[in-house]
Design brief:
By secondary structure, the chain is mainly alpha-helical. The chain is built from 14 helices and no strands. 77% of the residues lie in helices and 0% in strands.
Length: 304
Protein backbone atom coordinates (compact mmCIF):
# COMPACT_ATOMS: atom_id res chain seq x y z
CA UNK A 1 0.00 0.00 0.00
CA UNK A 2 1.43 3.34 -1.07
CA UNK A 3 1.63 6.36 1.26
CA UNK A 4 -0.95 8.13 -0.89
CA UNK A 5 -3.40 5.27 -0.44
CA UNK A 6 -2.81 5.26 3.35
CA UNK A 7 -3.41 9.00 3.53
CA UNK A 8 -6.65 8.68 1.58
CA UNK A 9 -7.85 5.90 3.90
CA UNK A 10 -7.03 8.02 6.98
CA UNK A 11 -8.87 11.00 5.52
CA UNK A 12 -11.88 8.83 4.75
CA UNK A 13 -11.87 7.38 8.25
CA UNK A 14 -11.67 10.87 9.75
CA UNK A 15 -14.60 12.10 7.64
CA UNK A 16 -16.62 9.04 8.57
CA UNK A 17 -15.85 9.59 12.28
CA UNK A 18 -16.90 13.24 12.07
CA UNK A 19 -20.07 12.32 10.23
CA UNK A 20 -20.91 9.74 12.89
CA UNK A 21 -20.29 12.30 15.63
CA UNK A 22 -22.63 14.81 13.98
CA UNK A 23 -25.31 12.14 13.55
CA UNK A 24 -25.11 11.19 17.22
CA UNK A 25 -25.26 14.87 18.21
CA UNK A 26 -28.26 15.42 15.95
CA UNK A 27 -30.08 12.48 17.55
CA UNK A 28 -29.46 13.93 21.01
CA UNK A 29 -30.57 17.46 20.10
CA UNK A 30 -34.28 16.86 20.40
CA UNK A 31 -36.65 19.76 20.87
CA UNK A 32 -37.30 19.04 24.57
CA UNK A 33 -33.57 19.09 25.27
CA UNK A 34 -33.02 22.26 23.27
CA UNK A 35 -35.86 23.99 25.14
CA UNK A 36 -34.51 22.75 28.48
CA UNK A 37 -31.01 24.10 27.73
CA UNK A 38 -32.47 27.41 26.54
CA UNK A 39 -34.57 27.67 29.72
CA UNK A 40 -31.55 27.02 31.96
CA UNK A 41 -29.48 29.62 30.09
CA UNK A 42 -32.32 32.12 30.41
CA UNK A 43 -32.50 31.54 34.18
CA UNK A 44 -28.74 32.02 34.54
CA UNK A 45 -28.86 35.24 32.52
CA UNK A 46 -31.77 36.50 34.62
CA UNK A 47 -29.92 35.76 37.87
CA UNK A 48 -26.47 36.99 36.86
CA UNK A 49 -27.35 39.99 34.72
CA UNK A 50 -27.95 42.38 37.68
CA UNK A 51 -24.59 41.46 39.21
CA UNK A 52 -22.81 41.95 35.88
CA UNK A 53 -24.47 45.36 35.47
CA UNK A 54 -23.48 46.46 38.99
CA UNK A 55 -19.86 45.35 38.60
CA UNK A 56 -19.61 46.84 35.12
CA UNK A 57 -21.17 50.10 36.26
CA UNK A 58 -18.62 50.41 39.07
CA UNK A 59 -15.87 50.85 36.45
CA UNK A 60 -17.70 53.46 34.36
CA UNK A 61 -16.25 56.96 34.14
CA UNK A 62 -17.81 60.23 32.97
CA UNK A 63 -16.56 61.90 29.83
CA UNK A 64 -14.95 64.62 31.95
CA UNK A 65 -14.31 65.08 35.65
CA UNK A 66 -16.77 67.96 35.94
CA UNK A 67 -19.73 65.70 35.18
CA UNK A 68 -21.41 64.19 38.26
CA UNK A 69 -22.67 60.68 37.53
CA UNK A 70 -26.06 60.02 39.10
CA UNK A 71 -26.94 56.99 37.00
CA UNK A 72 -25.67 53.52 36.10
CA UNK A 73 -23.81 53.37 32.82
CA UNK A 74 -23.56 49.91 31.31
CA UNK A 75 -21.62 48.94 29.35
CA UNK A 76 -19.10 51.57 30.47
CA UNK A 77 -17.72 53.74 27.70
CA UNK A 78 -14.70 54.77 29.76
CA UNK A 79 -13.05 52.68 32.46
CA UNK A 80 -11.84 53.97 35.80
CA UNK A 81 -11.06 52.81 39.35
CA UNK A 82 -11.82 56.17 40.97
CA UNK A 83 -15.10 54.99 42.48
CA UNK A 84 -13.31 52.29 44.48
CA UNK A 85 -11.05 54.97 45.96
CA UNK A 86 -14.07 57.12 46.80
CA UNK A 87 -16.06 54.50 48.74
CA UNK A 88 -17.28 56.29 51.90
CA UNK A 89 -15.66 55.09 55.09
CA UNK A 90 -19.05 54.35 56.75
CA UNK A 91 -19.78 51.83 54.00
CA UNK A 92 -16.39 50.16 54.46
CA UNK A 93 -16.91 49.96 58.23
CA UNK A 94 -20.42 48.62 57.69
CA UNK A 95 -19.07 46.01 55.26
CA UNK A 96 -16.54 44.76 57.80
CA UNK A 97 -19.17 44.76 60.54
CA UNK A 98 -21.61 42.80 58.36
CA UNK A 99 -19.03 40.10 57.59
CA UNK A 100 -18.05 39.78 61.25
CA UNK A 101 -21.70 39.68 62.33
CA UNK A 102 -22.64 37.11 59.68
CA UNK A 103 -19.70 34.89 60.61
CA UNK A 104 -20.62 35.02 64.30
CA UNK A 105 -24.26 34.28 63.49
CA UNK A 106 -23.25 31.30 61.34
CA UNK A 107 -21.10 29.82 64.12
CA UNK A 108 -23.77 30.35 66.79
CA UNK A 109 -26.51 28.99 64.52
CA UNK A 110 -24.49 25.81 63.98
CA UNK A 111 -23.89 25.51 67.74
CA UNK A 112 -27.65 25.70 68.36
CA UNK A 113 -28.93 24.00 65.22
CA UNK A 114 -26.88 20.79 65.32
CA UNK A 115 -28.07 19.69 68.82
CA UNK A 116 -31.62 20.69 67.88
CA UNK A 117 -31.50 18.58 64.71
CA UNK A 118 -30.09 15.62 66.63
CA UNK A 119 -32.88 15.95 69.16
CA UNK A 120 -35.57 16.14 66.46
CA UNK A 121 -34.30 13.11 64.56
CA UNK A 122 -33.15 10.86 67.40
CA UNK A 123 -34.67 12.24 70.58
CA UNK A 124 -37.80 10.98 72.26
CA UNK A 125 -39.62 14.28 72.44
CA UNK A 126 -43.32 14.58 73.18
CA UNK A 127 -45.24 16.34 70.41
CA UNK A 128 -42.20 16.25 68.12
CA UNK A 129 -44.12 17.59 65.06
CA UNK A 130 -45.22 20.60 67.11
CA UNK A 131 -41.67 21.26 68.27
CA UNK A 132 -40.38 20.97 64.71
CA UNK A 133 -43.06 23.40 63.50
CA UNK A 134 -42.08 25.92 66.20
CA UNK A 135 -38.40 25.68 65.23
CA UNK A 136 -39.33 26.28 61.59
CA UNK A 137 -41.58 29.23 62.43
CA UNK A 138 -39.00 31.95 61.65
CA UNK A 139 -38.99 30.74 58.04
CA UNK A 140 -42.72 31.47 57.72
CA UNK A 141 -42.79 34.91 59.35
CA UNK A 142 -42.04 37.95 57.14
CA UNK A 143 -38.81 39.64 58.18
CA UNK A 144 -40.55 42.97 58.65
CA UNK A 145 -42.91 41.39 61.18
CA UNK A 146 -39.93 39.75 62.89
CA UNK A 147 -38.13 43.08 63.14
CA UNK A 148 -41.13 44.85 64.65
CA UNK A 149 -41.79 41.99 67.10
CA UNK A 150 -38.16 41.88 68.27
CA UNK A 151 -38.05 45.66 68.65
CA UNK A 152 -41.17 45.64 70.85
CA UNK A 153 -39.79 42.71 72.82
CA UNK A 154 -36.50 44.52 73.43
CA UNK A 155 -38.38 47.56 74.70
CA UNK A 156 -40.49 45.39 77.01
CA UNK A 157 -37.46 43.46 78.28
CA UNK A 158 -35.61 46.73 78.80
CA UNK A 159 -38.44 48.20 80.86
CA UNK A 160 -38.42 45.11 83.08
CA UNK A 161 -34.67 44.58 83.41
CA UNK A 162 -33.12 47.91 82.50
CA UNK A 163 -31.11 46.28 79.69
CA UNK A 164 -32.15 47.67 76.32
CA UNK A 165 -30.86 45.69 73.34
CA UNK A 166 -32.34 47.76 70.52
CA UNK A 167 -29.69 49.67 68.65
CA UNK A 168 -26.90 47.40 69.90
CA UNK A 169 -24.76 44.80 68.16
CA UNK A 170 -25.94 42.16 70.65
CA UNK A 171 -29.59 42.84 69.84
CA UNK A 172 -28.94 42.65 66.11
CA UNK A 173 -26.94 39.44 66.61
CA UNK A 174 -29.85 37.80 68.44
CA UNK A 175 -32.28 38.91 65.75
CA UNK A 176 -30.18 37.44 62.96
CA UNK A 177 -29.63 34.29 65.01
CA UNK A 178 -33.41 33.92 65.24
CA UNK A 179 -33.64 34.10 61.44
CA UNK A 180 -30.67 31.88 60.62
CA UNK A 181 -30.93 28.94 63.03
CA UNK A 182 -33.83 27.19 61.22
CA UNK A 183 -31.68 26.90 58.09
CA UNK A 184 -29.05 24.94 60.02
CA UNK A 185 -31.70 22.75 61.65
CA UNK A 186 -33.30 21.92 58.30
CA UNK A 187 -30.01 21.20 56.55
CA UNK A 188 -28.63 18.97 59.30
CA UNK A 189 -31.96 17.19 59.73
CA UNK A 190 -32.00 16.29 56.02
CA UNK A 191 -28.57 14.65 56.34
CA UNK A 192 -29.38 12.89 59.62
CA UNK A 193 -32.49 11.29 58.14
CA UNK A 194 -30.23 9.48 55.63
CA UNK A 195 -27.58 8.64 58.20
CA UNK A 196 -26.53 5.00 58.44
CA UNK A 197 -26.72 4.27 62.19
CA UNK A 198 -24.77 1.03 61.69
CA UNK A 199 -21.61 3.12 61.53
CA UNK A 200 -22.22 4.33 65.08
CA UNK A 201 -23.09 0.82 66.22
CA UNK A 202 -19.79 -0.41 64.80
CA UNK A 203 -17.95 2.31 66.74
CA UNK A 204 -19.73 1.30 69.96
CA UNK A 205 -18.83 -2.35 69.31
CA UNK A 206 -15.16 -1.40 68.97
CA UNK A 207 -15.25 0.28 72.37
CA UNK A 208 -15.74 3.93 71.49
CA UNK A 209 -17.63 6.09 73.94
CA UNK A 210 -20.68 8.14 72.95
CA UNK A 211 -18.68 11.37 72.92
CA UNK A 212 -15.88 9.84 70.85
CA UNK A 213 -18.40 8.34 68.43
CA UNK A 214 -20.09 11.71 68.07
CA UNK A 215 -16.78 13.47 67.48
CA UNK A 216 -15.10 10.90 65.23
CA UNK A 217 -18.05 9.32 63.37
CA UNK A 218 -21.27 11.33 63.51
CA UNK A 219 -20.01 14.88 63.09
CA UNK A 220 -17.65 14.15 60.15
CA UNK A 221 -20.45 12.39 58.26
CA UNK A 222 -23.01 15.17 58.80
CA UNK A 223 -20.42 17.90 58.22
CA UNK A 224 -21.74 18.69 54.70
CA UNK A 225 -25.13 19.48 56.22
CA UNK A 226 -23.53 21.61 58.95
CA UNK A 227 -21.46 23.46 56.37
CA UNK A 228 -24.48 24.09 54.12
CA UNK A 229 -26.56 25.31 57.06
CA UNK A 230 -23.76 27.59 58.23
CA UNK A 231 -23.40 29.01 54.73
CA UNK A 232 -27.15 29.66 54.56
CA UNK A 233 -27.00 31.32 57.98
CA UNK A 234 -24.13 33.53 56.86
CA UNK A 235 -26.01 34.63 53.74
CA UNK A 236 -29.26 35.28 55.63
CA UNK A 237 -27.47 37.48 58.14
CA UNK A 238 -25.38 39.32 55.58
CA UNK A 239 -28.20 40.24 53.18
CA UNK A 240 -30.87 41.05 55.76
CA UNK A 241 -32.38 44.54 55.59
CA UNK A 242 -35.80 44.57 57.35
CA UNK A 243 -34.65 43.26 60.74
CA UNK A 244 -31.47 45.34 60.66
CA UNK A 245 -33.51 48.48 59.92
CA UNK A 246 -35.38 48.06 63.20
CA UNK A 247 -32.62 46.71 65.45
CA UNK A 248 -29.35 48.25 64.23
CA UNK A 249 -28.06 51.47 65.76
CA UNK A 250 -26.78 54.52 63.94
CA UNK A 251 -23.18 53.52 64.61
CA UNK A 252 -23.79 49.79 64.02
CA UNK A 253 -25.54 49.75 60.66
CA UNK A 254 -24.99 46.71 58.47
CA UNK A 255 -23.72 47.03 54.93
CA UNK A 256 -27.09 46.43 53.18
CA UNK A 257 -28.72 49.08 55.39
CA UNK A 258 -25.90 51.56 54.79
CA UNK A 259 -26.13 50.91 51.05
CA UNK A 260 -29.91 51.28 51.17
CA UNK A 261 -29.64 54.71 52.81
CA UNK A 262 -26.92 55.78 50.36
CA UNK A 263 -29.07 54.82 47.35
CA UNK A 264 -32.11 56.51 48.89
CA UNK A 265 -30.41 59.85 49.56
CA UNK A 266 -28.02 60.44 46.67
CA UNK A 267 -26.88 57.85 44.14
CA UNK A 268 -23.16 57.65 43.46
CA UNK A 269 -21.20 54.99 41.53
CA UNK A 270 -19.09 54.48 44.65
CA UNK A 271 -22.07 52.52 46.01
CA UNK A 272 -21.75 50.20 43.02
CA UNK A 273 -18.04 49.82 43.81
CA UNK A 274 -18.82 48.88 47.42
CA UNK A 275 -21.45 46.39 46.27
CA UNK A 276 -18.94 44.89 43.82
CA UNK A 277 -16.42 44.42 46.62
CA UNK A 278 -19.05 42.64 48.71
CA UNK A 279 -20.02 40.39 45.79
CA UNK A 280 -16.37 39.56 45.06
CA UNK A 281 -15.63 38.76 48.69
CA UNK A 282 -18.70 36.55 48.92
CA UNK A 283 -17.65 34.71 45.75
CA UNK A 284 -14.16 34.15 47.17
CA UNK A 285 -15.72 32.88 50.39
CA UNK A 286 -17.84 30.33 48.52
CA UNK A 287 -14.84 29.17 46.44
CA UNK A 288 -12.68 28.83 49.55
CA UNK A 289 -15.42 26.91 51.34
CA UNK A 290 -15.75 24.60 48.36
CA UNK A 291 -12.00 23.95 48.44
CA UNK A 292 -11.87 23.39 52.21
CA UNK A 293 -15.06 21.42 52.86
CA UNK A 294 -16.51 20.52 49.48
CA UNK A 295 -20.09 21.32 48.55
CA UNK A 296 -20.13 18.19 46.37
CA UNK A 297 -20.15 16.09 49.54
CA UNK A 298 -23.51 17.57 50.46
CA UNK A 299 -24.98 16.57 47.12
CA UNK A 300 -23.66 13.05 47.59
CA UNK A 301 -25.09 12.90 51.09
CA UNK A 302 -28.54 14.03 49.88
CA UNK A 303 -28.55 11.50 47.06
CA UNK A 304 -28.05 8.51 49.31
Amino acid sequence: MTPMTTSALDAGTSRSHRAGTWRRLARRLTWPRVLAVAYVLLVFVFLLAPIVVVIGGSFSAPENDRVVMSYVEFPPRHLTLKWYAEIPSPQLHALGFSFALAFGVAVAACALGVPAALALVRGRIAAKPLVAAILRAPLQIPHVVTGIALLQFYYLAGDLSGLYLQGTAAGLFLGHLFLATPFVIGSVTAVLQRFNVRLEEAAFTLGASRWRTLRRVTLPIIMPGIFAGGLYAFIVSFVDVPVALFLAGSNRATFPVELFFAMEQDFNPSSLAAASLAAGFALLLVIASQRIVGIDNLLKAKSR
